[in-house]
Amino acid sequence: MMELKDLPIEITEQIIPKDQTILKLPTEQCIHWLNQFHPNDTLMILNAGFESEEKELYLEKFKYKIYLNFENKHINKQGRNAVIIDYNMVTSTISKYTHLFRYFQIWTGDTDWHSFVWLSKISLKILNRHNLHNVHLNNTDQRYLNGSFEIFKRFYEDNFVQIRSETEKFFKSIGRITVNLNYDQYQTLIKTLEEYNPNEIIACKTACIFIEPTKDSPNFFPVKSVTDYFKPSVQLTLYYFGPNTTVEYTDDLIDNLPLVHYLSLGFGQLEYERISESFILKLGAKYDIEKWKKYGFQVKVDKNYYEKSLEDKIWHKLWNIEIYDEYVILWLK
User: How much is the pLDDT for 130?
Assistant: First the structure.
């Protein structure tokens, strides 16, 4: 049986109301019709809903689902779980909807990652759409920030700055942050964080930072490039793993480590005993074995380094050891 949505748009436009009542439809149907209408009508309908008494209902319904498409090519919107508005068709009217910009994202084709127009250089993978308790951070692909978006950004940058100032709690509400980038990509990310969140450290419960060395990246990792930007309260995982990688200054690592309950480090070469002792000392558990057991410390080191420099020195009563082909993991018992 043919459904209403299967009829030609010329016919259904005479049946389906172009007002906020359409927002009451089930989400899938609602998105279907919003994508069928002219983008100017879609903006008008969304605006009416977001200004109505049922605003909170609609905000939740379309959370992370509204996109601006800045590419000058046709996008098949059929079956998409996203409202996609073609920017080149609303350039003359979008200035009326600057108050909606905080909800708009850049269409990249990947709905797992979210690039808000006001936070455009950062992509977020939000693992729980109801909150920001678990977020992956990445850089937005530069190709989506050129062309029409670049012009749009230049014109509305003051609006974006205002949105960022009003949502300063955005970074403070994150519970768990995961970053998995190579060294160069990570340098780009922290420059962006400095731009969007100047002089502020992202306080979270857990930070898992995995940085892959590149051909030209240094063996000595600058620890402050992590500790100056992320301050977890429960767990820190920091990996910059390669055969010869280590921290730039061990004292810097010790002095700048946040006070967490669980610390996991991955470097090719590391003074792990000195770091673990300082870690336990900072927690006030050096002479309290029972308290010591409540915390966790783990390191991953290169296997060759382990065999040449560590194997004969390990106090096995204190450390668990797992040996793999290319690396060794040690953790406090």
Answer: 66
Residue pair 22/31 in contact by the 8 Å Cβ criterion: no
Q: Which residue has the tokens 């060395």?
A: 213
What is d(CA 63, CA 176) in angstroms, rounded to the nearest whole number? 20
For 299, the enclosing helix (H) or strand (E) is strand 296-302
Residues in the chain: 333
209-257 pLDDT, tens digit per residue, is 999 999 999 999 999 999 999 999 999 999 999 999 998 788 778 888 8
Residue from 296, 254, 298, 301 nearest 274 by CA: 254
Tens digit of each residue's pLDDT (9 = 90 or more) over 99-126: 999 999 999 999 999 999 999 999 999 8
Same domain, 186 and 197: yes
Are residues 213 and 158 located together in one domain of the fold? no
Q: How far apart are CA 64 and CA 31, in angstroms?
A: 13
- Same structural domain for residues 93 and 218? no
Measured CA to CA in angstroms, residue 71 lies from 67, 79, 106 at distances of 12, 19, 10
Residue with tokens 């792990």: 272
Are 19 and 152 found together in one domain?
yes
**Domain that includes residue 33, residue range:** 1-120+141-166
Residue 131 lies in a domain: no
pLDDT attached to residue 305: 94
| Same-domain check for residues 274 and 210 | yes
Number of independent structural domains in the chain: 2
Strands 176-182 and 134-139: parallel
Look at residue 207 and tell me if it is in a domain: yes
| 219 and 240 Cβ atoms separated by less than 8 Å | no
